[in-house]
Amino acid sequence: MSEENLSIKAKEALRHIRNWIMHNSRFPSMRELMTAMGYKSPRSAMLLLEELETNGFLKKKIDGSYKLIKDLEETETVRTVSIPLIGSVAAGTPIFADENIEAMIPVSTSLIKSGQKYFLLKVRGDSMDLAGINHGDMILVMQKKYADNGENIVALIDDEATVKEFHHSGQIVTLVPRSSNLTHQPIIVTSNLRIQGIVAAVIPKVNN
Fold it and tell me: Ranges for the LexA repressor DNA-binding domain (predicted)?
C-alpha cells in the first residue's frame, strides 16, 4: 500500500497525528483526533485510523492503541530514516519494547551514523538546560551501553529514563545535571548503571 491510496481526509488525519506526537510525545486519543479534525462523532475518526492502518501508516499495539510507523513522503529533497520515539518506559521492559514506542519519526540521514541504532526521547524538566537541552525538546540518542566522561547520556534509573552528564571513576558513576535550577543535584550510582545511549543531537521544541 502507498500514499496514493489514502483519501485527502486520511492524509489530513496523519498530519494531525504526527504533529500531536511531536508536541505531546504520545498518540492522540480518539476524542482528541476527532476534535482536531472538526468531527462531532468518534466514528469518523475511527474510520480514518482504520484506513491509515490498512495502508500501512499505523499499527495497533498490544494494548489496542495505535502507533505511527510511516509518515507522508512530502519531500524528495531530504533523505530520512524512521527513528522510534520512546514515550514512557514501562517498568521492567526494555526501552525498545513495542509498548514504549509512540511513533516512528522521519529523521534526516545527515544526523545518523551508518551502522548505528538510534531513538528519540522527549525531554521533561530543566536539569540540563545549561547544556542546551530544555523541557519539551526532543533528543536524538545513539544507542550505546558505554560512555566517555563528559558525554550526555540517557540512563535508566528505577525504570525511568534520565538525561545527565556522565562521569566515571573506579566503581562510582556520577550523573551530573547542568541546570540553572540549583535544586537539581548529582546522582551517584555504581558502575552497573544501565546506559541506554548518548545524546547525538537536540531537536528544539517547536512552538505553535
Answer: 4-60
- The x, y and z cell numbers of residue 59, run together, are 499499527
Below-50 pLDDT ranges, the chain: 75-76
Q: What is the pLDDT of residue 76?
A: 47
- The one catalytic residue in 2, 164, 191, 205 is 164
Structure confidence by residue, pLDDT tens digits, 8-39:
888 888 888 887 877 677 888 888 888 888 88
* Nearest-angstrom CA–CA distance, 123 and 118: 16
Q: Where are the domains of the chain?
A: 3-68, 80-203
**CA separation for the pair 179, 130 (Å, rounded):** 5
pTM of the model: 0.68
127 labelled catalytic: yes
Would you tell me how many other CB atoms lie within 10 Å of the CB of residue 111?
15
Choose the catalytic residue: 25, 70, 122, 127.
127
8 Å CB contact between 109 and 80: yes
pLDDT at 92: 57
3-68 CATH pick, 3.30.365.10, 1.10.10.10, 3.10.450.320, 2.70.98.10: 1.10.10.10
